[in-house]
Amino acid sequence: MTGEIVLIGRSNVGKSTLFRHLTGKKVRVGRRPGVTIGPARVRVGNVVYVDMPGYGYMRGADKKVQEGTKDFIVRRFEDGAEEILLVIQVIDAASFAEIADRWERRGEVPQEVELFEFLTELGLDVIVAANKMDKVADPDATLDEIGERLGMLPPWRQWRDRIAPISAKAGEIEPLKKIIRSKI
């Protein structure tokens, strides 16, 4: 039986770069948000990796396109949950707290938190790939805060089966690969 491992996250967090490292397949990546506009799919053994378009800000895209992308993502997970083995929620560890604070100051739930809660409510197995760790000054404090905002009590190290500190651009993704291997 074939199952899917789906990569999801905010625009420009490194999903496509990570996808390339996990699958060996080159996909278009860019410096600006919104380069991935539709899902990319690559079969590796009995698993199909899916690189979803990013949600949130997309330079040059109007609000309607951004909302349409968000609706597509929600429907994709609701309609295809049975085929999904794992979801890899890629976040930018270097800017996560700053972005979450901005949302919370406006009285809103941060998109990363909302997505994580949505996916877990669907009963999906979610791994948080904390990307861009090479840009983080205090890795343990950063990962503790990420885990805590997602509802996991610190220290983050007790969640090594759910939180993977990585740097996709540098090719440092072994913590994530280890979790994937243990789950499939």
From TrEMBL:
Gene3D superfamilies referenced in this protein's UniProt entry, alphabetically: P-loop containing nucleotide triphosphate hydrolases (3.40.50.300)
Keywords tagged on the record: GTP-binding, Magnesium, Metal-binding, Nucleotide-binding
Residues in EngB-type G domain copies: 1-184
Protein name according to UniProt: GTP-binding protein EngB
PROSITE patterns in UniProt: G_ENGB
Organism: Candidatus Methanocrinis alkalitolerans
One Pfam family cited in the UniProt record for this chain: MMR_HSR1
InterPro entries in the record: G_ENGB_dom (IPR030393), GTP-bd (IPR006073), P-loop_NTPase (IPR027417)
